[in-house]
Amino acid sequence: MHNVVVGTSGTSLDDVVAVARGGARVELGEDALAALAASRRVIDDLAARTDPVYGVSTGFGALAVRHIDPGLRGRLQRNIVRSHAAGMGPRVEREVVRALMFLRLKTLASGHTGVRPLVARTLADVLNAGITPVVHEYGSLGCSGDLAPLSHCALTLMGEGEAEGPDGTVRPAAELLAAHGIEPLELAEKEGLALLNGTDGMLGMLAMACADLGRLFTSADVTAALTLEALLGTDRVLAPELHAIRPHPGQAASARNMRAVLAGSGLTGHHQDDAPRVQDAYSVRCAPQVAGAGRDTLAHARTVAGRELAAAVDNPVVLLPGDTGPGRVESNGNFHGAPVAYVLDFLAITAADLASITERRTDRLLDKNRSHGLPPFLADDPGVDSGLMIAQYTQAALVSELKRLAVPASADSIPSSAMQEDHVSMGWSAARKLRTAVDGLTRVVAVELCAATRALELRDGLRAQGYVPGAAAEAVIAALRASGVRGAGPDHYLAPDLLLAEEFVRSGALVRAAEAATGPLE
Fold first, then answer.
1. Are residues 190 and 213 in the same domain?
2. 120-124, 217-221, 274-278 — which is least confidently predicted?
3. Is residue 162 domain-shared with residue 250, that is, in the same domain?
4. What are the b/e assignments for 454-471, b being 16+ CB within 10 Å?
5. 54 catalytic residue (yes or no)
6. So what's the pLDDT on residue 163?
7. Kind and range of the H or E element at 480?
8. 218 and 173, same structural domain?
9. How is 27-62 classified by DSSP, letter by letter?
């Protein structure tokens, strides 16, 4: 795992995932250290003046009207961390906390927050030590930053509260810092506020959702192709010229993936057991259009995330001396989470719709009236065996949940801070529900995978005549069976198979198995 260097120009989606999930070490670039020192000089100069400066010599939020004497400013910064560390509910996942810490470090390194280099170094040291603050589910409105989550992280830097060590044990933060030779921070002017005021939690969850959904869209292309093949559908609808006349790039990419998976198949479009089908059902025929629209939405989300990853999100911000005049501190609204919240909600809609069309294909495989010769519910001895009947129930329950999760969080706003913060983004909530939606979509795709591979195995009559699935289908079936997921046969305890199939999709094993035959998929 490579080290991730944090500089003044921001970071990348890949770096966020590497630090959050892969445990990559972080280090501060020389440009970042120089910018940190320069912006701190601006803060020190302003702190020495009598003029009130928000976050430096005043209270916060609706309490910004009070001027704070120099002797109380350290206490002011400690108190904002302690009072704002007011989260409740279940613990947030380790990877989310690491992502938000890394992204806060990214903003500190921009040189627009005014903290001392020591603060950034300490945050990097805590990340590299594998110390993960205990952060709770509730406490962010997605405006003025992910306040409570970031406050719990800042509390750890101060040696207060609780954190999880690299061994997974939760201990007092002071003990963990001492065990790794890290001195607790004594915060100076502006520093407590700078540690709290960013969209880092929602942005970190967006970065990881982008990675997950990229893999899931490709996975869904593979399972859609396997279902088309198992239903003896036609691949003519995937012709490049058909997609060129409606030039959505995501649609074209999904169609290319499906064509690659179906290459060499002896089952597509030739062996209908009833009157020749002029066209397949929407859930099969329109698979590239639906998955492709999701891909284009994901591309937009990545664009927004990229802009945010290049941003310095804080209030107030430090503007260094230059073309804009002398160094100064300015209040702003860049902490508002609307840009991130909107795409988080948009992605939840795509997850719900992709799950919906996936479930419809699964149901078609199980219904003897629509499956073109397959046994009811893909059962070994229908009536004695129920096959995958209840797996589709589980899939349907997941789809229903995904539809509820598609209701936008960003359309809501609850005023806070005595009406000073009277419009908020609810972006943290949008991110939390998107994570649930991504998990649900993974399971939905896994059920289609189980059904499509079993259905292909049950086309033994055609296999006996020499009509066999394509190389990609055979590779996926072999890999799935090697993972422990059982295929066609008498009923057995099904839940373990579904769990293994879920991991097969989540880990990327499905895509890798298909690519062994197709080459790289998109």
1. no
2. 274-278
3. no
4. bbbbbbeebeeeebbbbb
5. yes
6. 98
7. helix 471-482
8. no
9. EE-HHHHHHHHHHHHHHHHHHTSSS--TTTTB--GG
Could you read off the pLDDT of 145-188 as tens digits, one per residue?
Answer: 899 999 999 999 999 999 999 999 999 999 999 999 999 999 99
HSE of 253 in the Cβ direction (CA atoms, 13 Å)? 20
DSSP letter for each residue of 244-293: HTS--HHHHHHHHHHHHHHTT-SSTTT--SSSPPSS--HHHHTHHHHHHH
* Together in a domain, 346 and 495: yes
Domain count, the chain: 2
Last residue of a domain, one of 168, 198, 228: 198
Residue whose C-alpha is closest to residue 3's, from 341, 343, 22: 22
CB 393: neighbour CB atoms within 10 A?
A: 11
Closest CA to 162 of 136, 125, 196: 136
Specify the CATH number for the domain of residue 133.
1.10.275.10
CATH number of the CATH domain containing 480: 1.20.200.10
Could you say which of 54, 282, 342, 493 is catalytic? 54
pLDDT digits (tens, 9 = 90+) for 214-236: 999 999 999 999 999 999 999 99
Residue 190 and residue 240 in one domain: no
Q: Is pTM beyond 0.90 here?
A: yes
Nearby residues of 397 by Cβ (< 8 Å), 6 or more positions away: none
Whether 178 and 163 have beta carbons less than 8 Å apart is answered as no
Q: How far apart are CA 233 and CA 268, in angstroms?
A: 5
41 shares its domain with 175? yes
Q: C-alpha angle 257/217/260, rounded to 5°?
A: 10
Kindly give the interhelix angle for 200-230 and 94-108, rounded to the nearest 10 degrees.
Answer: 130
* Among candidate residues 198, 220, 244, the one where a domain is terminated: 198
Give exposure, 198-236, as e/b (b: 16+ Cβ within 10 Å): bbbbbbbbbbbbbbbbbbbbbbbbbbbbbbbbbbbbbbe
Residue 321's pLDDT is what? 83
Q: Are residues 223 and 174 in the same domain?
A: no
Distance CA 45, CA 69 (A): 15
Q: How far apart are CA 365 and CA 369, in angstroms?
A: 10
Task: List the domain range (segments joined by +) for residue 392.
Answer: 205-317+326-518
Tokens of 389: 């009947």
**Would you give the end-to-end CA distance of the chain in angstroms?**
24
Ramachandran area for residue 168 (φ above 0: left; ψ -120 to 50: alpha; else beta): left
Q: Is cis: bond before 339, omega within 30 of 0? A: no
